């Protein structure tokens, strides 16, 4: 399904984004990952 492929592409991108972001932003981005993925599903 397209959404699955899209999600698989978004997840690594978000993961990379969190890694590139400073630790201070990490806790803020971590919980945001779930809400962002949920709507796509």
From TrEMBL:
Signal peptide: none
GO cellular component: mitochondrial membrane; proton-transporting ATP synthase complex
Membrane topology summary: Single-pass membrane protein
GO biological process: proton motive force-driven ATP synthesis
Keyword Transit peptide found: no
InterPro entries per the UniProt record, alphabetical: ATP8_metazoa
A GO MF term: proton transmembrane transporter activity
Principal cellular location given in the protein's record: mitochondrion
Keywords assigned by UniProt, alphabetized: ATP synthesis, CF(0), Hydrogen ion transport, Ion transport, Membrane, Mitochondrion, Transmembrane, Transmembrane helix, Transport
Subcellular location(s) per record: Mitochondrion membrane
Pfam families reported for this sequence: ATP-synt_8 (PF00895)
Family (UniProt): Belongs to the ATPase protein 8 family.
Annotated protein name in UniProt: ATP synthase complex subunit 8
Lineage: Eukaryota, Metazoa, Chordata, Craniata, Vertebrata
Designated gene of the protein: ATP8
């Amino acid at each position: 399904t397209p959404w699955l492929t899209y999600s698989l592409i978004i997840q690594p991108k978000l993961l990379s984004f969190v890694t590139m972001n400073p630790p201070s932003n990490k806790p803020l981005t971590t919980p945001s990952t779930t809400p962002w993925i949920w709507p796509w599903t």
